[in-house]
Structure to design on (473 residues):
């Protein structure tokens, strides 16, 4: 972390960049916040540890419009999102200095809470360079958890340790994938329609329409969003019936279909813990099976599957009922 | 249950998005050829099947449709060259997603039907209406506020 801070300070001092986007300490040791850093003293609060899960690429849409260059810290998976934003002409690459930061998997405090860890005073072992268990110092005494058990679900299906776009890389990354990306989707596909309906109904009825999933999504970057239209049924408001929740989530996922890099931010920020990535991953899986493997953000020149076609595409009637066969 | 509801036949509400250049004319031909199709089908004319936003379909369901069918030109015959190719990809993904969240298969359909295929239009609509009748009322995708 110190190496990163020194390098950012150096970049600002020699005038390469005017400001940097990184994470600063939050009010709790497990919730660092994205922040701008401009002066050397700002960096006193700079932090980069296992809880810095936020994808900062979306912040560059606005930051790249500011005067002077901005340095941004991106993890390997965030660089896919950034590439996708370049593809859509949403960010100005010339105004961006990308520092690829190392990552060995990001952590989910909810996993600790599920283990009954409460009253956390401080956390040790979440440093980016470290390699060992995480120790929680709580008001009830010391608790330990393996780093792997505390990782976000999305890190178990990690896209790899390589940054796809960067100006320089600081720190080592690790490929933390140990599960199949589509395992959960396949599990749901194997259920009966009644079970699937019940599953999504129970998950989505938790939705409070806070719009966090929309606001955090790097692919959701329209200046004018359909969900802010007062004439639209699923406009920005708490749901009044069960279908509106589904409609909101289907449309949200559809709008990013073919552009979603599967960064998993939607599920991370959901205050109700709804597995929203299941929608996005279903679209990704379908695109992979129907139109060939596609990873959004891998290649900024690649054509998105939904803005492309071939003459002998699959007919919609063949797209359904494949699970029954 | 009130007495008069006992023998009431279920009449589905079917929304058909028809492309102006083919299926809409196909429906016209079906009419002028005196081929019948169910009155439950409500046609909405669109300039191209590519105009059909997936949201239209969801919204039709929300407002009480029991089935939605999209009719467009045969692939390769689009008035705007490529609109139906894009529609085909979109609908494939949407239908797969609807199946994924547990909606019965068959409530949605895409059919390619040219202006000369009045008979096909009538046959398709009859078939689709029968299918929706067998599936019954659309409960899973509807707005349930004013019901029960």
């Amino acid at each position: 972390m110190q190496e990163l801070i020194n390098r950012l300070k150096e970049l600002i001092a020699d005038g390469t960049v005017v400001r940097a986007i990184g994470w600063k300490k939050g009010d709790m040791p497990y919730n660092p916040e994205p922040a701008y850093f401009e002066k050397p003293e700002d960096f006193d609060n700079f932090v980069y540890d296992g809880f810095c899960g936020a994808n900062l690429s979306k912040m560059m849409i606005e930051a790249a419009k500011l005067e002077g260059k901005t340095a941004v810290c991106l993890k390997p998976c965030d660089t896919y999102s950034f590439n996708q934003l370049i593809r859509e002409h949403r960010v100005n690459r010339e105004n961006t200095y990308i520092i690829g930061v190392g990552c060995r998997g990001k952590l989910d405090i909810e996993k600790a809470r599920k283990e009954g860890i409460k009253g956390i005073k401080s956390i040790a072992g979440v440093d980016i360079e470290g390699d060992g268990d995480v120790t929680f110092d709580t008001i009830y005494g010391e608790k330990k958890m393996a780093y792997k058990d505390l990782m976000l679900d999305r890190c178990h299906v990690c896209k790899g340790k390589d940054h796809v776009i960067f100006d320089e890389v600081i720190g080592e990354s690790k490929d933390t994938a140990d599960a199949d990306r589509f395992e959960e989707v396949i599990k749901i596909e194997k259920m009966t329609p009644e079970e699937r309906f019940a599953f999504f109904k129970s998950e989505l009825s938790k939705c409070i329409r806070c719009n966090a999933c929309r606001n955090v999504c790097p692919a959701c970057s329209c200046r004018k969003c359909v969900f802010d239209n007062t004439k639209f049924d699923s406009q920005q408001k708490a749901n009044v019936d069960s279908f509106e929740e589904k409609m909101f989530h289907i449309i949200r996922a559809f709008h990013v279909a073919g552009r979603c890099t599967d960064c998993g931010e939607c599920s991370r920020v959901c205050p109700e813990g709804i597995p929203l990535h299941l929608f996005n991953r279903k679209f990704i899986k379908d695109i992979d099976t129907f139109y060939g493997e596609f990873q959004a953000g891998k290649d900024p020149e690649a054509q998105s599957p939904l803005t492309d076609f071939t003459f002998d595409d699959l007919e919609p009637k063949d797209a359904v009922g494949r699970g029954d066969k | 249950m009130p007495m008069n509801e006992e023998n009431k036949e279920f009449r589905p509400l079917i929304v058909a998005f028809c492309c102006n250049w083919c299926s809409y004319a196909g429906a016209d031909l079906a009419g002028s050829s005196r081929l019948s199709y169910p009155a439950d089908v409500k046609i909405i004319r669109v300039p191209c099947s590519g105009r059909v936003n997936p949201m239209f379909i969801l919204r039709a369901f929300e407002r009480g449709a029991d089935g939605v069918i999209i009719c467009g030109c045969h692939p390769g015959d689009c008035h705007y060259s490529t609109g139906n190719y894009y529609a085909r990809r979109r609908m494939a993904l949407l239908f797969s997603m609807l199946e994924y969240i547990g909606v019965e298969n068959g409530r949605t359909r895409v059919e390619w039907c040219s202006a000369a295929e009045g008979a096909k239009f009538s046959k398709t609509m009859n078939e689709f209406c029968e299918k929706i009748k067998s599936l019954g009322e659309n409960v899973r995708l509807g707005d349930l506020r004013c019901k029960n």
